[in-house]
Amino acid sequence: MMLTVQEIHLGPIMFPWGLAIPIIALVLSLLLGKFLFPKFKITTAQWQEFKDSIWNAVLIALLSARVSFILFHLDSYLAHPMEIIKIQDKGFHLYTGIVVAFAWIIWKNKPLSKKFLAILLLSFSMLNLGGFALLDQVQMKYQQYPDFNLQTLNQQPIALSQFTGKPTVINLWATWCPPCRREMPVLLEAQKNHPDVEFVLINQGEDATTIEKYLQNHAQGLSNVLLDPQGQTAEKTGMFGLPSTLFFDAQGKLIASHMGELTHASLNQKIKQIRVNIKEE
Known about the structure:
Elements: E1 2-3, E2 7-10, E3 13-16, H1 17-36, H2 44-72, H3 74-79, H4 94-108, H5 114-142, E4 149-152, E5 157-159, E6 168-173, H6 178-193, E7 198-204, H7 208-218, E8 225-228, H8 232-237, E9 244-248, E10 254-259, H9 264-274, H10 276-280
Parallel strand pairs: 6-7, 7-8
Antiparallel strand pairs: 1-2, 2-3, 4-5, 4-8, 6-9, 9-10
Helix pairs in contact: 1-5, 2-4
């Protein structure tokens, strides 16, 4: 097992912290409930019904979080309707899912002590808040704006620091990676639509000839494609899966990161986040 700033690696399986934290919070909250339920005069049968309602609430939360995200980004999904089913873009509106799940749990467990329910729901909420706050701090510490030299397709050295001063999207990819290839048109379109944002596509481990051939056939016009033959960007940022994308604001501060395939909606959402400071100035 290996722990990185993005996920837990269990052999070939990668388990993102964004999913691990809520699961850990849920398990700890249920352990607390198992200890407390006799004190609130709750029967074993009622406790079992409560646990069953939790797992139903998880499914309802995921569905409502996905639907609400689609509605918030309806224009993007109407333009590309097949992306609605691409849940690997991690397009979920977390707060909507939590509110709906809490409402479901309270409604399904009306006979139970309101204090008991409040303790468990508060425990779950606080564990999540603490977990994600800690994750944000770790990511900001270890995922600083990469400050080293790479190579252009012409084998010329180039410093990544030259892209600072504007919101920047750094994408790690390879031609052999199917989700990287699927998201390439999404990045190409975004680069054309957002000239105030720098898009830097850092190829991991391939030679210039292979990359140029691929770009000519599939992504003509894509700029800022760089070579990283030793994979040092992945090592420096802790983004070991492909594709991976880092989103920095104009001051070089990490705002968001995404491991896996991007869709138009998920990419546009994060671009809005890194452009906020520009709009305010």
